[in-house]
Write a structure and sequence with these properties.
alpha/beta; 11-stranded mixed sheet; globular; binds D-malate
Length: 347
């Protein structure tokens, strides 16, 4: 990737969205999520859970992380015998929610669903306020989702090659939607801009759910987003699809060429997801959540819906704390090298 300190970050504009700064962990503890008090007096241990569990999604409702979380939460309820409530805490590319969950009570009643952003944030934020490897316990991986480069329905280019030329020719005015620094859509945009050596204006949203609405309404030009949010929009003709960021074509989107076929072989991203709890959460609670996750990932409805959205649940071996921690560690190292190599400075 090209290192160009003069143009490390493209300008960003926020259409009425919040650009929250990440606060140190100690400060977050005081203002922690109301949901962290949802322990309902239950003492973590073998009797866990005795009350509702909140799964925090670090992006807006209606987007890909929200979709995956709600699909998995449903069968987890049955295994855990308690309600599993999804709470969207959007802001700062997913780091706001991660900081809040890190500071929540370690009783198993506040769980975080996060994705690849957990591994990129340490390289993108100078003052993250939490350490992904220290301040959490991992429950297990959930799924890996490819991304698609998509455009507003009336965007002139029809192929990725034409899109690249269009972006280069209109760099001063073309707009790219993302879900904030550290989000998968932001990361894909960085790789795209680096690959075509062109800086463009990023429009930041609290998630790609709301960004998709603006894209379909032609308020913004293009974005890169997970198939869990884009498949229905592409097949419904609401947006144009240019390429998918996986080595092979996807059964849910058989007509969409891979980035390699379309001429950008270096643009490969798979957005892995995992569940986390605060670091002092007892073993018995982690085990109960891992068991519920594993059961959810073999649920027939989950498998079928994931397939419709272009993804699959991870294997039973991957839905474990050990595999999840190993993935997190290796991805933090990988993205540190990639982000530093691209000349991107932490903000
Ligand atoms: C979301 O749920 O909105 C997305 O995962 C955001 C992103 O990472 O691009």
């Amino acid at each position: 990737m090209r290192h160009d300190p003069a143009t490390e970050f493209p300008p960003r504009v926020s259409p009425g969205t919040r650009r929250a700064r990440v606060r140190p962990l100690a400060l977050l503890a005081a203002g922690v999520l109301a949901v962290s008090a949802c322990g309902t007096g239950a003492s973590p241990g073998t009797d866990y859970p005795t009350g509702p569990i909140t799964v925090v999604v670090p992006f807006a409702a209606g987007g890909p992380t929200d979709t995956v979380t709600r699909l998995v939460a449903e069968p987890m309820k049955a295994t855990l015998g308690q309600d599993v409530v999804v709470s969207n805490v959007a802001g700062a590319g997913g780091t706001l929610a991660a900081g809040q969950v890190a500071a929540a009570a370690a009783d198993g009643y506040t769980v975080l669903m996060h994705h690849i952003g957990m591994s990129t944030a340490p390289s993108l934020y100078a003052d993250l306020g939490y350490d992904p490897l220290v301040d959490f316990r991992t429950i297990g991986l959930v799924t890996e989702v490819p991304m698609t480069i998509i455009g507003r329905p009336d965007l002139e280019p029809d192929t990725l090659e034409e899109l690249i030329q269009y972006v280069k020719d209109n760099a001063a005015t073309v707009t790219y939607a993302n879900a904030g620094v550290g989000a998968a859509s932001h990361l894909c945009g960085l790789l795209f801009m680096s690959a075509i050596d062109t800086q463009i204006t990023e429009v930041e949203y609290e998630g790609t759910g709301p960004a998709m609405e603006d894209l379909a309404g032609s308020q913004v030009d293009f974005m890169c987003d997970q198939t869990t949010n884009t498949t229905e929009q592409i097949t419904g003709g609401n947006v144009k699809a240019y390429a998918i960021t996986s080595p092979a074509r996807n059964d849910a989107l058989p007509d969409v060429p891979t980035t390699t076929e379309a001429g950008l072989p270096d643009l490969q991203i798979s957005v892995w997801h995992g569940l986390y709890v605060p670091k002092d959460t007892p073993d018995a609670v982690v085990q109960a959540l891992t068991a519920a996750l594993k059961a959810a990932l073999t649920d027939e409805d989950v498998i079928a819906k994931f397939a419709e959205l272009g993804t699959t649940p991870v294997s039973a071996e991957q839905a474990t704390p050990e595999a999840h921690t190993a993935k997190l560690q290796s991805e933090i190292e990988l993205w540190q090298t990639t982000i530093e190599g691209a000349g991107v400075e932490p903000q």
